[in-house]
Amino acid sequence: MKQLLFLFLFILSFSLQVAHAATIGGPEIILLIMVGFVSIAVIVGFVFLCLYLFKRSKQVENEK
Asked: Rounded CA gap, 45 and 40, in Å?
């Protein structure tokens, strides 16, 4: 959980740094934050999918 919080804070701070350095407006900041959230969701979803499949494969082996 700490890693996800750290990743969230990193994406937020990185987005704000890029926005400040490039002097871009509000919509671009929102877009950067949304891309960060989507990337977190994909990574977390992949991890949970792997865990689910790993647990399911153990259950199938126990049934045999």
From this structure: 8
d(CA 24, CA 16): 10
Q: Is the pLDDT of residue 55 over 80?
A: yes
C-alpha of 47 from chain center = 10
pLDDT at 13: 76
Distance CA 5, CA 26 (A): 23
What global pTM score does this model have? 0.55
Q: What six digits make up the tokens of 64? A: 């045999």
Confidence of residue 56 (pLDDT cuts 50, 70, 90): confident
